[in-house]
Design a protein that fits this description.
Helix content: over 70%
Structural class: mainly alpha
Shape: globular
CATH topology of the largest domain: Rna Polymerase Sigma Factor, Chain: A
Radius of gyration: 16 Å
CATH class of the largest domain: Mainly Alpha
Distance between the termini: 53 Å
CATH architecture of the largest domain: Orthogonal Bundle
Number of helices: 9
Number of domains: 2
Strand content: under 5%
């Protein structure tokens, strides 16, 4: 399967980086998919979709072994799982307690000091808003790249980013 992905890349540097990503995170991707999906076939579909999304942004990944890249990979797999669940059942319920525990444990890429009002505001945002802000400002992806990663249209990505910024602004103004 790896050969199929590699055939879609142009340069040897891209191929080497993708091989590193694949070997480093394949098991983690299946683990994350297992948190959302029960069927092995569904896990495979979600991981495959995430790997295809990573093909499009492999050039923008500086260090495949960094925590930033690990967070990006997990976020992409999670979104692919949620998309798959939505297609199958129409909706998906978020486990807010698990998300809160994750944020409290420091696994969130924007987690910082509890005295940091910006961090607190971001952590109190909706999951979608937080993910868009992380992809845009932490990972540095353009709106078009985010749209490609998440499999949505550019206009939808732009609008969701606008809503996320407005949500963050509202939270920060309410804290004053």
């Amino acid at each position: 399967m790896l050969q199929l992905y590699l055939s879609l890349l142009d340069t040897q540097a891209e191929k080497d980086k993708f091989i590193t990503l694949y070997e480093s995170y394949r098991d983690l991707m299946f683990y994350v998919a297992g948190c959302y999906l029960s069927s092995d076939a569904d896990k495979e579909i979600a991981v495959d979709g995430a790997l295809h999304a990573l093909l499009g942004v492999v050039n923008s990944i500086d260090d495949p072994s960094s925590a930033k890249t690990k967070n990006l990979v997990c976020l992409i797999v999670k979104r692919k799982c949620i998309d798959l669940l939505r297609r199958k059942s129409g909706t998906v319920e978020e486990d807010w307690e698990a998300i809160a525990e994750q944020a409290a444990s420091g696994t969130d890429p924007v987690q910082g000091s509890s005295e940091n009002s910006l961090t607190d505001a971001i952590l109190s945002m909706s999951e979608t808003g937080r993910e868009f802000l992380i992809l845009r400002y932490y990972h540095g992806y353009t709106t078009a790249e985010i749209a490609g990663l998440l499999g949505i249209g550019r206009d939808a990505a732009r609008k969701r980013l606008e809503r996320a910024k407005a949500e963050l602004k509202g939270i920060l103004e309410a804290d004053r």
